[in-house]
Each structure stands twice: as structure tokens, then as C-alpha cells.
Amino acid sequence: MTLKQWQTLRWFIIKGDEGKTLAFVESLKPTKSAYSKKLVSKLRKYKEKFGGSPHKSSGFLPEYIVLHHSYGGWMSLWHWLRNKASKVSYHYAVNTNGDRVQYVWDSQKAWHAGKSAWKKKRGMNTYSFGLTWTGDTNKRKPTFEEIDSMAELIAYLIKKNGWTDRNVEDIVLTHQLIAPNRKIDCARTWRDAVIKRVKERATL
Ligand SMILES: [Zn+2]
User: Among the four residues 68, 77, 104, 151, which has the most C-beta atoms within 10 Å?
Assistant: First the structure.
């Protein structure tokens, strides 16, 4: 296995695509000289772990990314999404320092959109990744890390799903856009900032 193949594979493992081959990949880990910290940090700037949520289902056909905020803080979100009673989940949550938790695998439906529609699609859980920030984006300003980490994640999802020929604006929506009578998350300014950052990062 070349270093490049290893990096690609490790990236997918980091992103937790079912995680089945983790032990196998660990056994292939190159020696230290080939596997420098610098290269890994280029691949992934922010920490990410898998938290899991019971609220997920099959039949996921993603075309969009929907941004949310959670009102509550980082740990209350952790407990809420993992609580059997909540019936709520997101694919990923981004903390104020940029750290992320994945709650639902990229291949499954998360329960974040509720009654919603966009263009000719109804029920946007089937058609979109749900990504959330914490707190209330209408009441506070984002940290640089929150925007940058979300942009890193969005760029990853765009690449992974083969959406690189689409406009970022057409991919990245908000809960407010898909459920305008019910929802006010996330703030438009945060969506604008993250779209701008995705484009900046693409040229870095
Ligand atoms: Zn929402």
C-alpha cells in the first residue's frame, strides 16, 4: 500500500464509514517515516469522533446538505441525540472549537428535517445530510473554527458524493429554507459564511 492509498483509506476510516475495516487498516499502518503528522493534519484539521444515535433509517438518497442549530450546548446535544425518547438526530455536530461528532453514518438517514420540502422533494431527511452547530445562531456570532470546521466537513461530503460540478449554494440549505413556516435555524449569515469558506478552502 502506498502512502497516498493509506491516506485515502485512513480518511475514510476517520470519517467512520461503518468502521468495519478499522482493525484491518490498523494492521496496514505504515512505519512512522512514511506517516508524518503533517500529512495527517492536512487531511483533517479538526478532531472527530463517532457518537452514534438510535434515530436513523435506511433509504438515504442524499442530494443536499441542511444546516441547523441545536439551541442547547455541546453536551446536552450529545445526550439528546443519543436519548431513545428524542427521535432526533443529525449526521454531524460541530462544536465551538471546531471538534465534530458524527451521530449517523453517511450511508443512513438522520432524523433532522421533519416536515419539509425543497424543489420537488418532500421529506428532506431522505434527501439531505443534517449538520448542526450548537446554541442559537440567530443570537450569537460564529467562531472561526465553527465556520471552518463545517466548511471542511461540507467539502468532504461534496467530494465524497460527487457533487463537485454543482454550485455550493445549490447544495447547502438551511432548516429554515426547507421548513419556512416552522423553523428559523440556522441564521442566514452563518450559511453565507460557511459557503464562502468552502469556496476559499477549495482554492487553498
Ligand atoms: Zn433544525
Answer: 104
Residues 37 and 121 both lie in one domain: no
Q: What is the pLDDT of residues 170-179, one digit of tens each?
A: 999 999 999 9
Confirm if 28 and 6 have CB atoms less than 8 A apart. yes
Q: Is 99 found in the same domain as 32?
A: no
- Structural domain total, the chain: 2
Q: Are residues 65 and 136 in the same domain?
A: yes
Q: What is the pTM of this model?
A: 0.80
For residue 71, report the distance from its CA to the centre of ligand 1, in Å. Answer: 9
Tell me the per-residue pLDDT of 135-155, one tens digit each, with 9 for 90 and over.
Answer: 999 999 999 999 999 999 999
- Ion ligand 1, residues whose Cβ is below 5 A away: 68, 175, 185
Question: Which amino acid, one-letter code, is at 47?
Answer: K
Q: Which domain holds residue 19?
A: 3-44
Residue 186 Cα to ligand 1 midpoint, Å, equals 7
Ligand 1 center–CA 118 separation, angstroms: 15
How far apart are the CA of 92 and the centre of ligand 1, in A?
12
